[in-house]
Write a structure and sequence with these properties.
Blueprint (H helix, E strand, L loop, with lengths): L3 E5 L1 H15 L3 E5 L1 H5 L3 H7 L5 E4 L2 H9 L6 E3 L9 H6 L2 E5 L2 H9 L6 E6 L11 H13 L3 E7 L13 H11 L6 E2 L3 H6 L7 E2 L25 E13 L4 E2 L5 E2 L4 E6 L16 E4 L2 E6 L7 E4 L11 E5 L5 H7 L4 H6 L6 E4 L1
Parallel strand pairs: 1-18, 2-3, 2-9, 3-4, 4-5, 5-6, 6-7, 7-8
Antiparallel strand pairs: 1-10, 10-13, 10-17, 11-12, 13-16, 14-15, 14-17, 15-16
The chain binds pyridoxal-5'-phosphate (PLP).
Pyridoxal-5'-phosphate (PLP) binds next to helix 9.
């Protein structure tokens, strides 16, 4: 068996959920489990997070996967429905679509369904991605209220810069409060960054994603700094050890030239496994429990590690690409990206083990 595994720590998932619940206080927690549970496996994450008050996904298939786990929680479809044909199944499976366009309100008005549908109505408070501006949003709210087959209407918006200390949520929160003034509906605003940093933005349903997977939404801070535990440990082994002489080049493009005579390890993990090709020489990696660095260009199936200070390293030595001791955020930063991308890009060919 190729020695590469993503070990998913389900106890860490529940630990992080409890951290989110503590922050949320009286508010309920919608666990964001889209993108295959941020790469951890949707069914597995659903089971591990069954103490959440609800789940947020994108598609009917994802919702069906959760229902097949026996999860009867509220399930929110964050992009709503993509075609009116989906409304019947949404009603049958008791899913809650985010309504973000006027034609979706028209489609709901025309729909004939067996059960009432609870919806989330999205206000664009400044992200300018999904949602209606104040006036059409208020009009949509009135129309939805008048429809007998629409149940609870939760007001929803999303923050664009909650992770940035200088900007935060203040402006978007003010826009929301102005639009929602005098309305008596539950609201959902906070992603992980807002939940962690802005208690005033928590509202009735918090929507944490990344923090449940043990990673920090804030640049320069790791999940561990926030009391979170890593949930995905990408672990491999050395499949070769090479000696290179000072001045010799390593791998494609000879991107790294040996600064001295040195021992170099080859790990069975590459960009086709989801390890970022843009990770530069110096990206942290652990071999035999000791921190070292990657060298040269990541190839499709392998990468190089520096064994200079790890005299006992040998073929078969354990390697942590990210997880305990190697925060996924630091690997992401070395590749010019964010932990979200690394976790969700884990390739299907990587074997998953659950602990
Ligand atoms: C609408 C919405 N809410 C909540 C989240 C969760 O965000 P985070 O993973 O930063 O907590 C996302 C994630 O992208 C989202 O798109």
């Amino acid at each position: 068996m190729r020695p590469l595994v993503a070990r998913i720590d389900t106890a860490a998932l529940s630990h992080n959920l409890m951290a989110a619940k503590r922050l949320a206080g009286k508010a309920r927690v919608l666990a964001v489990v889209k993108a295959n549970g941020y790469g951890h496996g949707l069914a597995r994450v659903g089971r591990a997070l069954r103490a959440a008050d609800g789940f947020a996904v994108l598609t009917l298939d994802e919702a069906a996967t959760l229902r097949a786990q026996g999860l009867s929680h509220p399930i929110v479809l964050l992009e709503g429905f993509f075609h009116p044909d989906e409304i019947a199944e949404i009603a049958r499976r008791r899913l809650q679509p985010v309504i973000h366009r006027e034609d979706q309100v028209d489609a709901l008005a025309r729909a004939r369904v067996e059960h009432k549908i609870d919806v989330f109505l999205k206000l664009d408070t400044g992200m300018h991605r999904l949602g209606l501006a104040k006036k059409p949003w208020l009009a949509a709210l009135e129309r939805l209220k008048s429809l007998p087959h629409i149940g609870t209407i939760t007001l929803i918006s999303h923050f664009a810069r909650a992770d940035e200390p200088e900007i935060g949520v203040e402006h978007q929160l003010a826009v929301f409060r102005d639009a929602a003034q005098g309305l008596n509906h539950p609201a959902s605003l906070a992603n992980s960054a807002a939940l962690l940093r802005y208690p005033e933005a928590i509202a009735d349903w918090a929507r944490p994603g990344i923090m449940l997977y043990g990673a920090s939404p804030f640049a320069g801070q790791t999940g561990a700094d926030l009391g979170l535990l890593p949930t995905m440990h990408l672990e491999g082994r050395l499949i070769a050890v090479q000696f290179v002489r000072k001045g010799e080049g390593l791998g494609y493009g000879h991107l790294y030239m040996a600064e001295r005579d040195m021992r170099v390890g080859v790990v069975a993990c590459g960009y086709a496994d989801g390890y970022p090709r843009h990770a530069v020489t110096g990206t942290p990696v652990m071999v035999e429990g000791r921190l070292t660095r990657t060298l040269g260009r990541v190839s499709m199936d392998m990468l190089f590690v520096d064994l200079t200070d790890i005299g006992n390293a040998h073929v078969g030595s354990p390697v942590t690409l990210w997880g305990d001791g190697v925060p996924v955020e630091t690997v992401a930063a070395a590749a010019g990206t964010i932990a979200y991308e690394l976790l969700t890009a884990l390739a299907p060919r990587v074997r998953i083990e659950e602990t």
